[in-house]
Amino acid sequence: MQERLLTIEQARRFLLRKQGLLGDWRFAGKEGALAYVRQAGCIQFDPVDVCGKNAELTLQSRVKGFQKKHLQELLYRDRLLVDYPDKELSIFPVEDWPYFAAYRQRSYVHGRQFAGLEALEEQAISYIRAHGPVSADTLPIDGEIFWHSSIHWSGNWHKNSKAARSVLEQMYTDGRLVIHHKTGSRKFYDLAETHIPEAILRAEDPCPEETAHIQWRILRRIGAVGLLPNRRSDAFLGIPMTTEQRNLAFETLEREGRIIPVQVDGFKPVLYARAEDGGLLEDVLQNDAPLKARCSFLAPLDPFLWDRKLIEALFGFRYSWEIYTPADKRKYGYYVLPIVYGEGFVGRLEATADYKAGILTVKHVWLEDGVKRTKKLMRAIEAAVRSFARFHQCTPSMEEAYHG
Description:
Helices cover 37% and strands 22% of the residues. By secondary structure, it is of the alpha+beta class. Among the domains are: 112-195, no CATH class; 295-403, Aminopeptidase (3-Layer(aba) Sandwich). The strands form 6 sheets. Strands 14, 15, 16, 17, 18 and 19 form a 6-stranded mixed beta sheet that branches. The protein is globular and about 65 Å long. It starts with a strand and ends with a strand.
């Protein structure tokens, strides 16, 4: 497929429009939240809630009128989304369930290593059938078992684990259980057959061969970010592949016309877009009229940020999630959100939500070097803070917030 040539400004505009962060709102309401997750393939879940959980923050930044209850309904009432490992812990459309059949089978085989586990699983299934959804605290299986990390966790460690928790986690990874709902950080599990349609639950793997599966995963991740190079990247976390397998997948996808090579002025690696985004690429190339500027606060694990080296190269914005950085070594803060305004990154925001008191406190706003503190920019950030506070059903407090 013919290579597209873009200026760096056009590449930025393409990515921001693809993400729904520039111009008119592309996504709205609960339907928009589902549409965005389908575009991204998956969004990452993280339980930390300083000013919203990662998945909620991902959606609020580009879905007009998004409410936290929309995600809960899509997951646990409508069952159009499902919690399951993909790019680490993730949320993805339930119709993608069949693509992870091999993963679930490997988990099942892994679980057979533990003597006595199968009997405990049968006990758990019988209890759930009789009593409904359970958590590790309510499933009446006592004791501990010597537990080796399951295939979806990194590392190679062993531990004594509460038997009820281990049984539920193993069956969840096997795909026999799904998360029924969550109460705070506590997960309640139920039988997958109760909540996933039979046609999806029993469907054959659409990509039974490893090479086809890798191609599907890579294509999905390109669609999540918008543009990606063929190189080692955090954008490909969770895809088990070698460098040779990744190279082959990119070569095949390009040869078959499923991805479009893109060369950006001053950027050495070739980037790739999905063929479905060819129309948006052409529109960006043909039209340079200014688009409506919006101000958005991005989640730390937002799909737009999955390849941080790419974001730094194209936007000049270096971001590191400092949640695991010792306090005395942090440059900014524990939970800091990038600020997008117009066609670039203009700063970072640190906020905490006190849900009981109903107050969203903006502790810091840092502007990037070279970004002028104009009245227009400040009004846009303050309006975004007010909207962010309403999203949390809080009143905003911004005393002494501005730095840099």
